[in-house]
Amino acid sequence: MARKKIREYDSKRLLKEHFKRIAGMDLSIKSVQVTESTDLNELADKESWLSSEKLVVKPDMLFGKRGKSGLVALNLDLAQVDAFVKERLGKEVEMGGCKGPITTFIVEPFVPHNEEFYLNIVSDRLGCSISFSECGGIEIEENWNKVKTIFVPTGTSFTAETCAPLIATLPLEIKDTIEEFIKSVFSIFSDLDFTFLEMNPFTLVEGKPYPLDMRGELDDTASFKNFKKWGNIEFPLPFGRVMSSTESFIHQLDEKTSASLKFTVLNPMGRIWTMVAGGGASVIYADTVGDLGYASELGNYAEYSGAPNEDEVLQYARVVIDCATADPDGRKRALVIGGGIANFTDVAATFSGIIRALREKESKLKASRMHVYVRRGGPNYQTGLAKMRVLGEEIGIPLEVYGPEETMTGICKEAIECITAAA
């Protein structure tokens, strides 16, 4: 399961689109997304409520505490919304220690209300935790002792009896409404493969629930079965994170393949670089370098999995090697080409793409004093490792090759010893 955050606009869009299908009733949610390319007047022609109702505007940038940070404006007309957006669009702000420009806003009707409720659903391996409070809103943290939580194991029906502890202290006149809303939201959560959903707050408008603030995360590995339900979904980068050209290239490559290709530059000047097969293995290699005290020298996080073909591996390996060999400074560097023991992936086939890239980049590898450490197991691994050994001899770079007899963490230690050894 890969939890990916989505914008508030998309969280509300999905809730609105699927509430009637699952719960048999409409939610009167209205919202629009505003970016640099948006013409508000054209948008108002399509969404007439923008001109006829008082509005709320706030950044939709995957960070919270917008109200406490003075980034939420209430009870505005369309002209005031336009001025608010123009004043802040592209301006850099700092939130939670991360800096970045504001690029996306959400605009909604201003909803006067007296009641504020809190709802949170989080999934884990064994089920879902559901939390509810009748004291939601901006001060939820100060009232955390009033939040009630239940756990719903996977495969267990979410019934009225299950929900009862959450709503036990609600007034009778709204208890049934809140219960049905929580149960319906939970059904949507499960049906659309949400991994996290929070409404803080939601309120009641003419007796019907209405989410005012909402956050969501989806399991992006479930996109193959939900692409029609999700529609044109966006998985934005975390706030403050901007892709480099190389990261963007790998991201685009990843989107075009059924395999998984991930690449993030952590330190362009780092001297330990990784090219690891398997999501779990990639985390182990990166964590090991950090645990051994050399996180500051880790140049990247990289993962390829899902049996990419030779051409995809070639393009991927070219990018990793180009970054790892950039701006040589005379000091040794290490490239860890690792992985666990594959179940189905033909190791020799994926190594073919890497070997082609290493051969192409021979001069860069030598100029950067790169030492390569290989560890892999799985189908046809002996052939793959043998090809790697031959390559090292042919292009004349230090290349250590191990099979499953060597631990995954062992070559991380060798890489560290390499870069710390005397020249």
Automatic annotation (TrEMBL):
Subcellular localization: Cytoplasm, Cytosol
InterPro entries named among the record's database cross-references: Citrate-bd (IPR032263), Citrate_synth_N (IPR056749), Succinyl-CoA_synth-like (IPR016102)
ATP-citrate synthase ATP-grasp domain: residues covered: 2-230
Catalytic EC class: transferase
Molecular function, one GO term: ATP binding
Matches recorded under SUPFAM superfamilies: Glutathione synthetase ATP-binding domain-like, Succinyl-CoA synthetase domains
Residues forming coiled coils: none
Top-level taxon of origin: Eukaryota
Keyword Cytoplasm: yes
GO BP, one annotated term: lipid metabolic process
Record field: catalytic activity: oxaloacetate + acetyl-CoA + ADP + phosphate = citrate + ATP + CoA
Keyword Acyltransferase applies: yes
EC number: 2.3.3.8
Domain spans labelled ATP-citrate synthase citrate-binding: 241-417
GO CC terms: cytosol; succinate-CoA ligase complex
Primary residence: cytoplasm
Keywords, in A-Z order: Acyltransferase, ATP-binding, Cytoplasm, Lipid biosynthesis, Lipid metabolism, Nucleotide-binding, Transferase
Family: Belongs to the succinate/malate CoA ligase beta subunit family.
Assembly information from the UniProt record: Heterooctamer of 4 alpha and 4 beta chains.
This protein's name: ATP citrate synthase
Species assigned in the record: Kingdonia uniflora
Source organism phylogeny: Eukaryota, Viridiplantae, Streptophyta, Embryophyta, Tracheophyta
